[in-house]
Design goal:
Elements lengths: L3 H8 L11 E5 L2 E4 L4 E4 L2 H4 L8 H11 L12 H13 L5 E5 L2 H16 L3 E5 L8 H6 L16 E4 L4 H7 L4 E7 L1 E2 L5 E2 L2 H14 L2 E5 L23 E4 L10 E5 L19 H16 L2 H18 L5 E7 L2 E6 L4 H9 L2 E2 L1 E2 L4 E4 L7 H23 L1
Helix pairs in contact: 3-9, 4-9, 10-12
């Protein structure tokens, strides 16, 4: 009988590297494979499971809503969508409009379109190391050339400047700039938090020059960094915020929050068949309620500080730096991390990379302190084992 791995390898499109382990259920920060072996998940489905796996409130909301109404185009108002719109409008004062879609890259596409529509300008300034998605607009804003290969030419009008560099930002934004788009914490690019001064300068420069300021919170949003959104550490209010991943507790959903400086959005300017469907809206309402009721934003701040300090205690000549914000943490090594990702998986710990040399930790915000201790111990052991192997 074929394994799940063999079936997916045979019939899949081929765009994913398949791991030789199949997961069939999860709860909290734990995943179980087909043989009922438990793993600690520090990937959160690439950041989509801030609430952990199979959160009971989200599961209950999905079951209830699925029996009532699953899909409804946004032309027709709906109770779940209306409630979610009100909730989203309360998250960031000044951003009181929302466009619903199905993913992070779609939320970025919407923001880029709205920026050009609103300003009448074409140029978009993004950052080096940025990752904003894989559709053509989001891909054009993404810096890493490996994602571009085979898909060029990309959209014209996009440029990239040094991240966390106010002087470079000041030079990049002109009277032709429609928008600046930045991640408050660069995720795929290596877990680099933006400084408060940098984000404040971005907001000021955009306002001075008539450009819009877009913050991509797809990976860093919904409590991940110890604030509801990572930009809130800096006291800025962007003109648009792109979010997705954990918005609906892992159910596919994206949103673009829109401020008053964004103009010219009229009926028919953009749309999404499944955006704002009642099922996803019900899941999102349950997820946002759980974040508040379980105080997961504060948990992320406290656990993130604890986890970071524990990681910094590891004494290994292989570690270059430990950095991050909340429970969005990167451990940069002095060599490629691929062997260590495998070594951790062999120790029943699932992690991600962020580039060639950074181990990325995105655990669910519900992860326990005991599980965090096990992750640190596993990393310490994996680094020691590799050093010992090199010495032999």
């Amino acid at each position: 009988m074929a394994t799940f791995y063999e079936i997916e390898t045979k019939y899949g499109a081929g765009v994913y590297y398949k791991q030789p382990v199949a997961f069939v259920r999860g709860q909290g920060a734990t995943l179980w494979d087909a043989d009922e072996v438990a793993y600690i998940d520090c990937t959160s489905g690439h950041g989509a499971a801030n609430l952990g796996h199979a959160h009971p409130k989200v599961a209950a909301a999905l079951a209830e809503q699925a029996s009532r109404l699953i899909t409804l185009f946004e032309t027709y108002p709906n109770d779940q969508r209306a409630a979610l719109m009100q909730k989203m409008a309360s998250l960031v004062p000044g951003l009181e409009r929302v466009f619903f879609c199905n993913s992070g890259t779609e939320s970025v596409e919407a923001a880029l379109k709205f920026a050009r529509l609103s300003t009448g300008r074409a140029e978009i300034v993004a950052a080096m190391r940025a990752f904003h998605g894989r559709t053509f607009g989001a891909l054009s804003a993404t810096f890493n050339k490996k994602y571009h290969q085979g898909f060029e030419p990309l959209l014209p009008g996009f440029s990239h400047m040094s991240y966390n560099n106010i002087e470079a930002l000041d030079k990049a934004v002109t009277e032709k700039t429609a928008a600046v788009i930045l991640e408050a914490v660069q995720g795929e690019g290596g877990i680099y938090p933006a400084s408060a001064e940098y984000l404040q300068a971005a907001q000021r420069i955009c306002h001075e020059r008539g450009a819009l300021f877009i913050v991509d919170e797809v990976q860093s949003g919904f409590g991940r960094t110890g604030k509801m959104f990572a930009f809130q550490h800096s006291g800025v209010i962007p003109d648009m915020v792109c979010c997705a991943k954990s918005l609906a507790g892992g159910v596919p959903m994206g949103a673009t929050l829109i401020g008053e400086r964004v103009q010219q959005i009229v009926a028919g300017a953009h749309g999404s068949t499944f955006g704002g469907n009642p099922l996803s809206c019900a899941a999102a309402l349950a997820a946002l309620a759980a974040i508040e009721e379980e105080d997961l934003v504060a948990q992320a701040a406290e656990k993130g500080e604890y986890f970071m300090e524990k990681l910094k205690v590891i004494r290994s000549p292989l570690i270059r730096e430990v950095r991050g914000l909340g429970l969005m943490i990167g451990v940069e090594l002095k060599q490629k991390v691929a062997p260590y990702l495998k070594a951790l998986q062999d120790r029943r710990i699932l992690v991600l990379n962020a580039g060639m040399t950074v181990i990325r930790f995105l655990p669910p915000l519900v992860i326990t302190y005991e599980q965090l201790d096990r992750v640190v111990a596993a990393l310490d052991d994996a680094l020691k084992m590799e050093l010992e192997a090199d010495d032999e």
